[in-house]
């Protein structure tokens, strides 16, 4: 009867399978005697591959949190061009004819930002045609939607087209949680995880804990959704969300726009959260209707009436943080870490105390975090205020629309003209400067002099935007970036200060105003940017990868484990922060995302050697000096397996699986750290590496490069199927011959033990499909 009632509502291919999900939810409710559930739990557990098997004899979900691995069936997959290459190269090795769930490819990361949309797009297509053609061929062959260069940024397109309340999706990009702004559970993963979903293999996730964020009050004046998350990042730090899904609730949610909620969820990646989401709201319905998905809104209304799309009364959160939106002050986060949050009123003081640059050198707005109609109309309204006073930006000002739909709508409504008349450069609908594709003309990459940029982006690791390690990226709202470009002075606070005009009079901005959604509706824009709606697989399409290509290389399966203890040498002891940008740099290296051997030349080039204080420098046994990848290549050729030692939150940042593939390709066996970022740890396991943490953090100090590090009891551990996590002892032998044992900890599930045993998750999936 439930299925009939869902069917009576017209649904489309982007409507989540509510009937099945509600049936699963009811089954869980029966098995747990109606235990109150959070929204995240409802969505996640309704996507279980087998509810009864997972719950077993348990009559509560609570003990699962942070403990039990869940096998989930996501509804769809989205991939961006840089990570899609490796995901698809891996998919090809499975020899399947089509994907098991709907998927989309988005060409956004490989587009440079320099001269503006037209020229940048042309030159980026010319430079990357081999890759775009490869992705397009894969899309045609396997029936995947292909969003070509210029169509927009993955997360904006997902929000406009695919995200829906109660959906579960995987995306090969760490800001996939953006879709949680429309009530989906959307998780950033590596390509190998995406391949799980694409092949219909249940995808494994350790049941997250739930962090409730209660929003009260209402945003006003200069405060914006961005400030909610920059403020929260300040409270929680880059590690505070690790192992959690962040679920927002409270009456403060009611006044947020759907795209504002997406901004907040987007940057949940910066606190390490598995994902973030909001409960179904009237703002979601408005957004679904304005993006021409009223059938999804109707179906969601129905699902809500069955208790699927909200948290239950009495739902238990593992932790609750409360934010009063009425009291929220805009903040500026950075430099070099997204959690260093300074309220704008304190920023001038912080600049002096920290000796940050006194001038701002550029302002950039847009990116997947902040390129909604609301963001852009609020920023443009400030531009209009300044233009009306005869003011011009004092520093270069760049605007990146998130999608063709946003761009065309902004153009129709005069917003693009407002920006361009003021002298801003409107870049193509792509990632551009957010991912190091900023061909910056005013400051050289090698410049040692620090400079500050203000952006509305989400990430600010060193060298992230312009490839220059001395550029300090301060993250803030688009509104604040826009006001700051008219001053160029870090000591200016637009909330309280004035700008001096040429005639000597003072101008003070009024707080920005804008519109959540376009009154005249969205305009699709140029049709050539839209894919075939329901693509069908065409097995006749040939995928051609030239053996001469330096961009693409077909994959060879990694070798299986030989059943013995691992005996390695420590190649590098890393000090401090080591993000995926340090392990596999972006920027110019994006070019080699589809060529494992070539991109391996950037492995850990950003890492700081604890023993020498040098970046990208290591020493061989005879003390000869090497770059880190060069020594790894050398040891690989000598058949000498290695280990890297590092500190906390190793692999924080993005879902970049290259950060796991490259070490594996170069002969790495073990990564031993004080703690891991979740996605990276999973990625290492998927590629057949052994990720371990120190049971006693102090043991980090006892190990040096070139020490021999051996496992003790690995075959027994594998034979026991990993025991669902536990201790694996390690024997350390110093060059002097002295040796001792330290305990390491692993978190491998039974399946993940098989990844290790078979050499990689793909080898294992292949084995399962063949048997
Ligand atoms: Fe692209 Fe930057 Fe977002 S790289 S996907 S705009 S975080």
UniProtKB/TrEMBL annotation:
Q: Which cofactor does it need?
A: [4Fe-4S] cluster
Q: Where in the cell is it found?
A: Mitochondrion
Species whose genome carries this gene: Hanseniaspora valbyensis NRRL Y-1626
**Which GO MF terms are attached to this record?**
4 iron, 4 sulfur cluster binding; aconitate hydratase activity; metal ion binding
One GO cellular-component annotation of the UniProt record comes to: cytosol
- Highest taxon of source: Eukaryota
Q: Which segments constitute the Aconitase A/isopropylmalate dehydratase small subunit swivel domain?
A: 569-697
GO BP annotation list: tricarboxylic acid cycle
The UniProt record lists the Aconitase/3-isopropylmalate dehydratase large subunit alpha/beta/alpha domain at: 42-488
User: One Pfam family from the UniProt entry?
Assistant: Aconitase_C
Relay the cofactor remark from the entry.
Binds 1 [4Fe-4S] cluster per subunit.
Q: Which UniProt keywords apply?
A: 4Fe-4S, Iron, Iron-sulfur, Lyase, Metal-binding, Mitochondrion, Transit peptide
Record keywords: Transit peptide included? yes
Q: Which family does it belong to?
A: Belongs to the aconitase/IPM isomerase family.
Task: Kindly provide the name given to this protein in its UniProt entry.
Answer: Aconitate hydratase, mitochondrial
Q: What is its EC number?
A: 4.2.1.-
